[in-house]
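REQUEST ID: PR-0412
SUBMITTED BY: lab tech R.K.
PRIORITY: routine
TASK: structure prediction, single protein chain
INPUT:
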Amino acid sequence: MHPSTTRRQFLATTAGATAVTLLKPALAFGAQANSKISLGVIGCGGRGAWIARLFAESGLYQVTACSDYFQDRIEAVGEAHGIPASRRYAGLNGYRGLLESDVDAVVIETPPYFHPEQAMAAVEAGKHVFLAKPIAVDVPGCLTIAEAGRKAAAKNLVFLVDFQTRANEYYREALRRVRQGDLGRIVMAEAFYPWSGGGRGAPPATAEEQLRQWYYVLPLSGDFIVEQAIHALDVATWILDADPVKAVGLGGRAMRPKNSIFDHFALTYTFPDEVPLAFTCVQAIPAFKDEIRCRAYGTEGYIDTDYFGSVWIRGNEPYKGGSTGNLYTEGAEVNIREFHQAVTQRHYANPTVAPSVRANLTAVLGREAGYRRREVTLAELVKENRRLEFDVRGLKG
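STATUS: complete
OUTPUT:
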């Protein structure tokens, strides 16, 4: 489990109960009315085990298969859900055995490097997909997810990306009001994600150890701007409703060793019509009160959003909004319910895919601007189509 464990475990302690909804007759896979969706878990680490429990506790799913590179993780999830030994798949390609089984859907909670390959394979195997953020670590991976989403829709499969903010009622209502013009013309925006967590570690020596502590391994996590700070950038691109044109800025390692990922970025993005987004993110600051915040300023008012606080609009058309509560858990629970609804009611529009690709590309663009210490355009980045590579030599299949 990566170094955000403490925060996530803390947030998970107030997990609430989830309403139970009966299935519609005739799932895409022929399940009988009122039966549960059969779910396979790909990635059984800290968050994988946690979200598998949320799926089971919803009463809407039965966890019937699991896969992970590490046997101890598989055994823990398998025992927790009564999964037969024959349906516990180990090794780097263990997920392929899971996809050959009769599960209806999969939840993918592996290191982000593996998401594009595993999600595409799941769609090609005819499985509904519930995918963790970030969707990828590089441009080719983002484009693969975009294609997987299109293929899923064409095959009458559901593909949902699990961003918690998009599941919150106050975020949704505030963004509905932004779309109807309550801010007027957006002039500028700012987003930031300072966090006391993240640690000050470095990549371990061996590939197997790197899989255990993948957060500090650039190809596996995409750096923390992609793996963590994407939460703030996702809200910013949601509000601005556009792809960035370019980004420029700095980043570096003030607290982490030189072979680790960065621990801070300070960037300026430019969006269409020369709308600027000022963005900063920093980790491992002792005793800091965590924030995942985004504000946007318009000619008629401004919106303020905080993952750990509240959402509201002030101006000529104010919106009182409200507290986001325990968004980490409650947002996931909403997505779990809505995934179930989409599968059983045969809704295959898959609306979370495109905005997830946009947010992920925005995060990758910021990383590259910070790494290269110069202005980088999105068009340049997409044209390069550069892939991050993780050396899997020595890992068991």
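NOTES: The two ends are 21 Å apart (CA to CA).
REVIEWED BY: pending
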